[in-house]
Amino acid sequence: MRQLSDDLYLHTILANAPGYPLIWNRFLLELARQLSCDSSALLVTDLNDYGKTRFLFSAHIPKQYQEQYEDKLNRQDHFNRYICQNPRRVVCNQNLRNELPGEHKSVFYPPGQQHFRFGVALACAQNHALSLLLNRKTEFTDTEQQHIGRLLENTLPKLQDAIHKEQRHKINTQLLHHLGDHFDGYIIVDHELNILFSDPIYTAIISQLDCVQISENRFGMKNQAIEQKLLSLMRHNQESSSIHNQCQSCQISLIPIAALKNLYQWECYMDGFILSFTHEKDKNPALERLMRLHSLSRCEAICALHFMRNPSIADIANHTYRSQETVRNHIKHTMQKMNAHSQAELMKKLITLASL
């Protein structure tokens, strides 16, 4: 029963972690506590250059050590290299002493002389891995190894889901700020239009567009001229903030991932490109009526339509990737422009307008 309770608590923390660094750190603290470890960390590793391994989040690992690790020690961490090359396999370094020959040829200093380690990695994009490491000063007993292995295996699906949501949150918020407007969906592709990252909801929306075709892990345009133009822009690694290309049913924006800011070390897709898609204005008549009849900005109209479906400010902020204060201001301005003296009156006017 205790094992089940511990698992559920960790899963609850993970469910709330995306977008909140302090909750990610809380997850690592709780994981280390439950497994009697001295420290823990989530890392992102470049499989082509282990010198680019970076900390995402950590618990009980001093900042000075993190800087030393990212500067030099990452190249000597053969245990992290091993688990990154064997994703989804839970490993204890006590069982690998004969499988890590390089470990004896270089000097690796773990944090606080915590030489005994557990680890597991998840594949990320094509050339990166995300690894979870647990460290301590004393050896793991056989019973502890079995317990830790079971808990990490049970936690891995929840961890993968939380990491995906974290990536989506970081990219969504940055993309919304970068475009300065809403978008219907996006994918991340490489220079050959292979899909590096996609969200099932967005992929379903994009797949319905008349101008695109998605097969397995590759994106394509039905209009070959537009596809060749996209490929050409990628080959020349365009640095402009966004490049708009008009097709029959939507507006496409091409944005180099490197142009985004504050990705918080999510380097997995730095060489890729975002393709964002937005329906033409006449595809959303309620939005256009609000903007035309009441002089609402697009952002105000979007928040107003979300308000009509669900008046919760927190939910609107979550769905539109805006702060709650921004949403409140948009709703306030909308009430003024629509001459509504209460939120109930605003709701009635919005429902009436949407039914036209």
Automatic annotation (TrEMBL):
It holds the Pfam family GerE. SUPFAM superfamilies: C-terminal effector domain of the bipartite response regulators. Residues 293-350 form the HTH luxR-type domain. It comes from the Bacteria. InterPro entries: Sig_transdc_resp-reg_C-effctor, Tscrpt_reg_LuxR_C, WH-like_DNA-bd_sf. Gene3D superfamilies: Winged helix-like DNA-binding domain superfamily/Winged helix DNA-binding domain. This is LuxR C-terminal-related transcriptional regulator. It comes from Methylomonas rivi.
